[in-house]
Amino acid sequence: MTNTAFLYPHSSLHRLWRELLADAGIEVNGSRPWDMQLKAPGVPERIFAEGSLGLGESYMDGAWEAQQPDELICRLLKARLHRRIHPSRLLLHALKARLLNRQTSKRAWQVGEAHYDLGNDFYAAMLDSRLTYTCGYWQDATTLEQAQTAKLDLICRKLGLEPGMRVLDIGCGWGSFMGYAAEHYGVECVGVTISRKQAEWARARYAGLPLEFRLQDYRELDEPFDRVVSVGMFEHVGHKNYRTYMEVAHRCLQDGGLFLLHTIGKNERHPHTDPWIDKYIFPNGELPSVGQVGDAVDQLFVVEDLHNFGADYDKTLMAWHANFEQAWPRFRERLGERFYRMWRYYLLACAGAFRARDIQLWQWVLAKGGVEQGYRRVS
């Protein structure tokens, strides 16, 4: 019989950890799918010392398991346990996020190399056919493909696209919006990305359409467009650059034009990001608050519409996770077991965070000069 006594210590720290989990409806080594199963010693110690970083790393190490990590994370966040644990080892991380500009022009390329350049074949296995790596719109959709198509069409209609318009896509990814807008609304598009593999894939996929994909930092843009769109890129900008970002969009947008900003957001104003996400998934990323976006657009744009459909990101992430699990045997040898646990935790933890309404998904419609007679949202 395996000796598991080390998994059930009676220290005051372990008692506190079990009490905190109980407040969230989670039991250590319980029978429910969201209960935490301890597989190695030291998990509570790592969590109290390092917060979410210790929680995520100990999962990557196989020190704990759960049938449904997404629901475990959802319950932890709903119980606000992250506010009751104050790991001292993360003070330097928080201080750096507050004081330093971690999204300079030089550092902006790091996330492309670390995350988006994992391999187009990997993302093609996980995402929809257009490689749309942002939240789908599930109002009338039952599949991931339908939800992503609905989201792209919603953006086009919110922008009031018409044939012949010239559109700028800041952070164009694999070009899903640009391709859809050109094919269905007859527009021309210029897109910028910091991922070489994204740009290469998009140029090949949409050859023949009036689209230009540039490997370029957004701060270098200075030319006129009828519309501006940015879908899932603002999360990489950083609070010290929000105003600069909006000034770039403003100077590129023709008078009377519309700018649609699609971004994940947080419920309160604080500058640091989740340390586990920052270390393993999105280097130098940061989620904005409503107030921070509002500050950044002051005297530049009229906020015509703000639409929150963050609950749809839960469904999107769970669909990505299902695709990832199904495709994993093809990538196991190349990426390895630790990557598998890291990526599984990333997708499911984020799904849990959206389910708990701890983070949001916003679409802002911003007008340069305002819309005469007012803006009417489409649905």
Please tell me about this protein's structure.
The protein has 379 residues and is α/β, with parallel strands linked by helices. The protein is built from 14 helices and nine strands. The protein has a seven-stranded mixed beta sheet with strand order 5-4-3-6-7-9-8, with helices on both faces. It has a two-stranded antiparallel ribbon with strand order 1-2. Strand 3 (166-170), helix 9 (176-185) and strand 4 (188-193) form a beta-alpha-beta unit. Helix 4 (69-78) packs across helix 14, helix 8 (144-159) packs across helix 9 (176-185) and helix 11 (242-252) packs across helix 13 (290-297). The chain is globular, with a radius of gyration of 22 Å. Residues 89-103 and 107-112 have low confidence and may be disordered.
In short:
By secondary structure, the chain is an alpha/beta fold. The chain has 14 helices and 9 strands.
SSE layout and pairings?
Blueprint: H1 12-23, E1 37-38, H2 43-50, H3 52-60, E2 64-65, H4 69-78, H5 91-99, H6 110-116, H7 120-126, H8 144-159, E3 166-170, H9 176-185, E4 188-193, H10 196-205, E5 211-215, E6 225-231, H11 242-252, E7 253-266, H12 275-280, H13 290-297, E8 302-308, H14 311-355, E9 359-367
Parallel strand pairs: 3-4, 3-6, 4-5, 6-7
Antiparallel strand pairs: 1-2, 7-9, 8-9
Helix pairs in contact: 2-3, 3-14, 4-14, 8-9, 11-13
